[in-house]
Amino acid sequence: MTDGNIGADGARFRLFLGVLFLVFALGLMALLTVTDAPLTLRLVVFVPLWVGTFTLAESRTRVCVLNAARGVCSTESGVQRIEDDERRMELVRRAWRVPLHSVLYAVVLTVFLVAVSAWLPWRIPAG
């Protein structure tokens, strides 16, 4: 397996964004739960969960989907074209898994959070 197409800084940035979006999704779900929002409205938490899992997957694999599609590698010194066709194709093969896995993880997390939010008796008291 070849190295990815993002450097250590890019991986750390994606890790930070992924955690940030996951925390935001949890906060959003908590807000929707305590305000007794309809279950269908709580499904909007899928969007930040998908962005979070997407950026976490890019960080873990060190493969940026956009860079793979463009055939470039971003490092601390800048963006460089990948000249080796075999390496470029390997990165494209690895890149298609990122959105697929992130959608699957986000769907599972969304279903789990919506189910837990329906089960929890947390509500803001009327008054």
Q: What's the helical proportion of residues? A: 55-70%
Our Rg estimate from Cα atoms comes to 18 Å
- Overall pLDDT score: 92
Tell me, briefly, the overall form: elongated
**Number of β-strand runs:** 2
Tell me the domain tally: 1
Briefly note the structural class of the backbone.
mainly alpha
- The ordered string of helix (H) and strand (E) elements is HHHHEEHH
Low-confidence stretches: none
Q: What multimeric state do the chains show?
A: single chain
What does this structure look like?
With 127 residues, this protein is mostly helical. It has one domain (8-119). The protein contains six helices and two strands. The chain has a two-stranded antiparallel ribbon with strand order 1-2. α3 crosses α6 (97-119). It is elongated, with a radius of gyration of 18 Å.
Summarize the structure.
The protein is mainly α and 127 residues long. The protein contains 6 helices and 2 strands, in the order H-H-H-H-E-E-H-H.
